[in-house]
Amino acid sequence: MKGRPAGSFTRENILKIVAALGISYGYEIYKIYREFFGRITLRNVYYNLRKGVELLQLAEVGAQEILGNFTWGRVVERKYYILGPLSKINDAEVEELRIRIKGENTANLKINWESLSKKYYNFILEELRKIEGKRRLQRGEVRNFEEKVNSILNWLGYHDIRIENLIKQNLENLKGRFRL
Question: Given strand 24-25, what is the order of strands in its sheet?
Answer without folding.
Answer: 24-25, 73-83, 58-70
